[in-house]
Amino acid sequence: MNSARPAPPDSIELSSRRKRDLLDHFEGNSEELDRWREFNAAYHDDDRKFMRFLIPPGKRVLELGCSRGDLLAALKPSYGVGVDFGAKAIAKAKARYPHLHFVYGDIEDPATMTSIEGPFDYIVMADTIGMFDDIDGTLRLTQRLCSPSTRNIIAYYSHMWEPILKLAETLRLRSKQPEINYIATADFLNLMDLADFEVISQEQRQLLPRRWLGLGPFINRYIAPLPGIRQLCLRTYIIGRPVRHFPDRKFSASVLIPCRNERGNIENAIRRMPRFGSSQEILFVEGNSSDGTFEECERVREAYRDSWDIKVLKQDGKGKGDAVRKGFSAATGDVLMILDADLTMPPEALPKYHAVIESGKAEFVNGTRLVYPMESEAMRPLNFIANRCFAYLFSYLVNTRLTDTLCGTKVLLRKDYEVLARERAYFGNFDPFGDFDLIFGAAKQNLKIVETPIHYKARTFGETQISRFRDGWLLLRMVWFAYRKLKAI
Question: What is the pTM of this model?
Answer without folding.
Answer: 0.86
